[in-house]
Amino acid sequence: MDDTKVIVQVDKTVVKITGLQVKGLNIQKLEEILANKLKSLIRIIGVTGSSIEMDVYGVEEDAILREEDGLIKAISMAEGISISDLSALSSVKKIQSVDIDNIPDYVENGCRGERWMRV
């Protein structure tokens, strides 16, 4: 087994939009629409019938919040999405940076994701 470890810092903000009606969505097309709107790399990471969650790379929380109306209008252009008066950014959270000296150890037989809850 190779002991090589790779540490990556990603400058991303996780954005969740709720109050939508989603049916028959082309995720790649939506990513393209949003990338053009925000001039950034976008990855859709979750879709339900009423919400979309995405990673937005290299854009700060406050910049996304200032663009809420424009972002929701851009999303409405994607086929398979209908917006309503309740459509809103329900969560905009910058991913926390972790110093290399504070990276939690992996605990055998534990959930790898839970180790980050201690940071």
Gist of the model:
With 119 residues, this protein is an alpha+beta fold. 23% of the residues lie in helices and 32% in strands. A hairpin with a 3-residue loop joins strand 2 (42-47) and strand 3 (51-57).
Tally of DSSP helical segments:
3
How large a portion of the residues is in β-strands, by DSSP E? 25-35%
In terms of quaternary structure, the protein is single chain
Taking the sheet with the most strands, its summary is: 4 strands, antiparallel
Query: What class do helices, strands and sheet pairing give?
Result: alpha+beta
Rg over CA atoms, rounded to whole Å, is 17 Å
> How much helix is in the residues?
10-25%
Q: What is the succession of H and E elements?
A: EHEEHHE
What report would you give on this structure?
- The structure is a single chain.
- The protein has helices at 27-38, 61-66, 68-76, and strands at 12-22, 42-47, 51-57, 81-94.
- The protein is an alpha+beta fold and 119 residues long.
- The chain has a 4-stranded antiparallel beta sheet with strand order 2-3-1-4.
- Strand 2 and strand 3 form a beta hairpin.
- The two termini are 27 Å apart.
- The model has no long low-confidence stretch (mean pLDDT 84).
